[in-house]
Design goal:
Layout: E1 8-11, E2 14-17, H1 22-40, H2 47-63, H3 73-91, H4 101-107
Antiparallel strand pairs: 1-2
Helix pairs in contact: 1-2, 1-3, 2-3, 3-4
């Protein structure tokens, strides 16, 4: 008897899908960003502290359940773009400032 293959199923209250949807993860990451933006965009708070808040609140929402997906290069690239955009905003920079991503990451 063959076991049928399911594309998605419910496990411990979460729906597990065969292929992960990167768009849902990006939406969740932005929702957490908006809820914490008062702290993350405050100019009076140190950048390192903002980085810790970002790593505790936003990044887990962005990466939740992604560890079990088969990821493509395009999906990894999209996650990196979203993350660097959030970090630029957190530091108060825009793309026209022409600051390299590595420099911004070192600050945070």
């Amino acid at each position: 008897m063959a076991i049928p293959r399911a594309e998605k199923f419910r496990y411990l209250g979460s729906i597990i899908e065969e292929k992960g949807d990167i768009n849902d993860r990006i939406k969740e990451g932005w929702q957490k960003w908006r809820s914490a933006s008062g702290t993350l965009c405050d100019k009076k708070i140190f950048v390192r502290l903002k980085g810790k808040v970002y790593r505790i609140i936003v990044r887990p929402a962005l990466l939740y359940r992604a560890e079990c997906w088969l990821t493509k290069k395009t999906q990894v690239q999209r996650k990196m773009v979203v993350e660097i955009r959030m970090i630029h905003w957190m530091c108060g920079h825009i793309r026209l400032d022409r600051i390299r991503n590595e420099v911004i990451r070192e600050k945070v």
